[in-house]
Each structure stands twice: as C-alpha cells, then as structure tokens.
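Changelog excerpt

This revision adds worked examples to the README so contributors can see how folded entries look when concatenated. The first example is reproduced verbatim below.
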Amino acid sequence: RQRVAETVDRLALPFVIGLATPETVAKLQLIHDHLFDAHRDLPIPTSILTNSEGVVTAFYNGPTDIHTVLDDARGSGSDSLPFRGSWFRARARVSPFEFVRALIEQDLVQDASAYVQAHRARLQQDPEFATLLSHLGAKLLDQGEDGAVEVFQQAMGGDDRNADHYYNLGLAKQQQRDFAGAITAYRRAIELEPEHMRSHNNLASALAMQGQLDLAIPHFRTVIRLDPTYAKGRVNFASALIGTGKLEQAVVQLQEAIKLEPNTAKAYNNLAVALHRLGRTEEARAYLREAKRLAP
C-alpha cells in the first residue's frame, strides 16, 4: 500500500487518484459481474469512468487509451445506465431487474433504492417488480434505513391484493411509531388473508400498545389457534388477559408458554403477577424466584 502511494505521488498524474476501499471494490465487482459473460475477479488493469454525478458510465477491462476515454466522456450523461462506453470484450445482456436483486442480496440497499428510483419505468415491466420492492423494503427496514414505507407503498401500487405487502407496510409504520397507520395496514392484510398469522400477531400487539386490550384479545386468540407452539404469542396474550382482569385464563396461557420454552423469564414473572392477584401467594413467590434466576 505504501509503495502504491509513493508511485502515485511520483507519477504526478493530472487528476484525482486514490486507493479503493474493499467496500468500493465489492460494488464494482458486482457491477462487473452483470456486464460481462465471464464472471471473474476484476482484471488488472481495470479502468472505470464516472460522470459528474458519480454514475459509472464505462468499464475498460485491460489497457485503453486517452482518446477512447475522452470520446466516452463526451458521450456520457447522467442517465447512462445501463452502462455505455467501450468494452474490452463483447458486452453481455444486462438485466436491470437481476442487477437490483444482486444489490439487495449484497445488502447495498441504498444503491438498490437509488437504482430503482432512477429506472422505475423499465424495472416495473417485470411481473415480479412488486415482489422485488417488497424485498427491498424489508431490507431497508431490517437495516433501519429511511424509505421503507415509501417502497412498500410502491409495492402495493403494483400488487394491492398481496397480504404480505400490507404486513410489511404495517411493520414500517410501527417502526416509525405510527400505530394508527400500522393497525390499518395489518387489518387490510387480514382482510386479504384472514389467517395471516403475523398480521394478527402484530395487530394485537399494536392494539395492546394503544391500550385497546379488548380489541387485541381476539387477535391473540387467533395467533394461538394458528400456531399453538408460539410461546411468545402466549406470553403477550397473557399480558392482555391480565390487563383486562382475566387472571385464570392468563395463568393457563403462561403455564403453556413455560412448557414450550422453560427459560422464558417474562413468562415466570407474569405468572407470578397473575397468581399474586389471585391470592395464590406461595405459588407466586416460587415463580418470581425462578424469573429472577433466569434474568438476574
């Protein structure tokens, strides 16, 4: 690395030059793999021409000359994707859809989002475009990036009968603490797919967080019916039951949760609360001790 820097200084090249980071090389390799038939590591030398907006406009695999670069630079514009330029070998067909999918799989979600917005008209010709948007939105959500709500809304514009799209929109709304928007999205998902378990679960949780426990309880019941082994769902269900004074029912749910997942401290703690309110003090103390052992 030091020798490279010293060589660059000695050459005194009349343009900005520097060393690429591994992240930059990984992005360039991804682009390269979608432009050429032979998918291999970037050859040396590889030259890359970008315009003033930072958009890649040409790849040169192997030696090139200044006249070619200048000609390509004069002909490149900000809308030059898929990439114009001179190619050291024959260019393969480029699928923008597959390129975006690859960006998403590499967790380059902001790059994927920018590409989608710039080339939406072409991308939306693919029948799987709504699914791609939903996948992109989920990645944005997972990484805490902005733009997930907008991407999910765009996905629904292309496929407004898909319950998963509304579920994902609900997740994004809930992350923004827009509980009213999340509740609306989850309810729409359930209208489209009445046994969409994840939507019932999240709708119940969102309603409970809003203090609407009586409305949440039927959805918690549906979650348990659809997945009797979901221990966390039983714990959440029990919390709503305790909040509405249905203590005996809460005890049943918590005991089942403990059978399913014996190391869940919250289940023991909540069971202690329910038993204490029922006057079963000694049992409550035993479960409280276990809760403290599991979560000191």
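The second example, added in the same revision:
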Amino acid sequence: TIDDNFIMSPKYDFVFKYIFGNEKHKDLLIALLSDILAVPEEEFDGIEIINSELIKEFKEDRKGILDVRVRTKSGKQIDVEIQILPTEYMPERTMFYWSKMYTSQIKQGDTYDKLKKCVTINIVDFKCTPLKKLYSSYHLTEDETGYRLTDILEVYFLEIPKLFDEDIERDENDPIVQWMEFLDAKSKGVMEMLAEKNKDIKKAYDLLQIISKDEKARMLYEARQAEISDQLTRIKSAEEKGRKKGRKEGREEGATKKAIRVAEKMLGRGDSIEDIVDMTELPKEKVVELKKKYQN
C-alpha cells in the first residue's frame, strides 16, 4: 500500500515530463511558458511538443536532466530543461545546446530567413549565476546602449536554491516564484497552499497526486531518487577531497614560506649552507639559490 501523504517531487525527470511534456495536458506547459516568457497564452495556440529531445552528447548530461522541446505555429522553438545535479560551465553548456537547436533549423542551401527564434529555459536545482535574483533572462545586446542585435536568442535561468536565500527579494504572487516553489515542494501541505493561489498549479498538483499513487511509477521514482542521491554523494565527496587537498597544499605552502624566511635570516647572519639545510629542511639547491639572490 502507498502512504497517503506520499507525493513525488515534480523536479524528477519523468515526473516533470508527465506533467509538462504530455500532449494530454498541453495547457499546463502553455501556462508555465506563458508565465516564464511573460507572453499571453494565446501565443502558444497550436504549439507542438517535439518528442525528440535534444540528444545529449556528454556523459554527465544524461542523468537527472530532462528537456521538453516545443515548436510554436510561427516556427519558434523553446527548450525547457530541468536539472537536479550541479554542472560546471553551465552557461557554456547552455549555449552549446542552444546552438544545436538553432542550427538544426536549416540545411545546406537554405537561406538565413528560415532561422527562427530559439529559447532555452533552464530550471536548475543549484546556483549557477552570482546574481541576487531568483530568475534571470539573457539576450544579445550592445554593451553601452543595450541595443538588441537580434531577437533570435533568449536564455532563462530559474535557480531553485535561491528560494532559500534571505538576501533575495521575492514576490509571493509572482507566478514564476510560485512555479519554482511548486517544483521544489516536498510536502502535500506546501503544494496545497500553492494550489489555492494558482489554478494552473492546482491542475499540476492533481496530476502529481495521480502519478504518485501509481505503483510502477513509484518504483521508478525511488530508483531515480537513489541514483541522484548516489551521484550527489559522489560530487560532495569529490569536493571534500578537493578541499582537503587544498588545505594540505596550503599548509605545505605556508610551511615552505616560513622556512624560506628563516633561511634568509640565517644567510644574513652568515650561517653555513649545511646548517641552514639542517635547520629549515629546505632542499640544498633552494638554499644555494637563496644565497645567490642574497649576494646580489
């Protein structure tokens, strides 16, 4: 039997896809896109979900990442990606996959007017910009005047962990903030509160309750959770090893600097190279090099 209080996290790839990447409830995807891109829902009439996700070319891009890709009636493409595991060089990675989406629109011999706007929306469960903002958007603009060179490029970052940063202002009535809170919610109570404020979140929450009661989906979810947990543990352990190594190297570097200062004082006193090596434990070549410097 399934615990009545159990609810899946919509951040997990197949759960997100079930809610937002499903032809049966395209209206939810439209609501999410309309809120993030700040354009009326009517603009997404006739939207087509392109099931062939962008093929991930790198090993680290294949786990805990999912994208739902759509094409509008006017040919504009939008890729919504949700990512739990932290990734280095996220802006560069984003531009790499954005460029794939952009260049895949035309083939040799086509004219550039066939190239339509491409939008990437990154919903990430880690911080990847230094900005004191929950979400940010980027375009191609001239440095001084802010003139937009072209409208073909649009990139968004929604950084979920920033919800817990007290220095960052937020408007609880902002639908983007509500979606971020829904995606991060860990209990039915939080989701129900958000569902009362936002009719689209209410529908998403209803779907989430349905999939959370499905035993097969639950088994897949638990396996995915364990996999992500293992990867996060590996990342943390690698970071800790790096920190320890850094601290050790820092201590060694500090000890070497101190030994050099002592050696310089001893050289000033006229002590022999052997005595200095004995006292400081510096290599003899290093002391000889210091002596030459000192004599110059």
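Reviewer comment on example two: Strands lie at 48-50, 65-71, 77-83, 118-124, 135-141, 148-159. Residues 52-62 have pLDDT under 50 and may be disordered.
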